[in-house]
Design a protein that fits this description.
6 helices, binds hypoxanthine, single chain, 5-stranded mixed beta barrel
Amino acid sequence: MSKRYERLMKCYESFKAKIDFTPEIALILGSGLGDYADGIDIRATLDYKDIEDFPVSTAPGHKGRFVFGYVNGVPVVVMQGRVHYYEGYPMEDVVLPVRLMKLMGAKVLFLTNAAGGVNWQFECGDFMLINDQICMAPSPLIGENLDEMGPRFPDMSEIYSKKLRDIVKKSARELDIPLREGVYIQLTGPNYESPSEVRMVRTLGADAVGMSTACEAIAANHIGMKTVGISCISNLACGVSNRPLSHAEVQETADRVAPLFKQLITASVTNIAKEI
Ligand code: HPA
């Protein structure tokens, strides 16, 4: 058994000893969305600190717990607060929760984040369905392979499931919520980008830039979880806007559009569950 799998099993045993719940869909909530979990039909919660060997997030605006419950009757596990690479954790720790949620039973990973708009057409407060990604942070699969869960050299030709993307688009249309589409690029952070870096990532084909998500999506694909992701464009990236960037601005926008974002997530989760 690989060391990675052994550690993961330790976390899983810790979860099993405390929680009796099988989620179908796993959700990771980005900045401003943390309280989505408070509004679902909650059946149990589990603080990260109570899971043996589990990394604990330190980012402001992020709580640290799993919430188990139902969204319109669909069993979900929600990560209220994610683990970021910029906090200093190795990538193995950053994606451990994704692997753990797969072991819990989740078949789908639903990712959300706040991101900077790189595409000139984007406006602050827009939602962007992620249709592909560029991961400029180290791959979470470097090192010993988790042979028990996925192949050494996994395919990444459809990281964000076309079928799930179509369901999210349909859900947005039904709610009359405008939805952009584009490529998400993950840089390590925690600094925001310079104007030249934003120009670089635009040249590379990115529409939005952030500090999470892509590594989680790689880990999910590796272990056969269907993945879908939506970015909230919380600010225009440096050089797109001529104002200095702050976490307060990111948080303020994310908070402002959170009610609409929550509606889109609820509708998407409900529709996805019907089709998986
Ligand atoms: N850059 C990187 N990460 C971010 C941004 C940004 O502009 N906004 C929110 N997360």
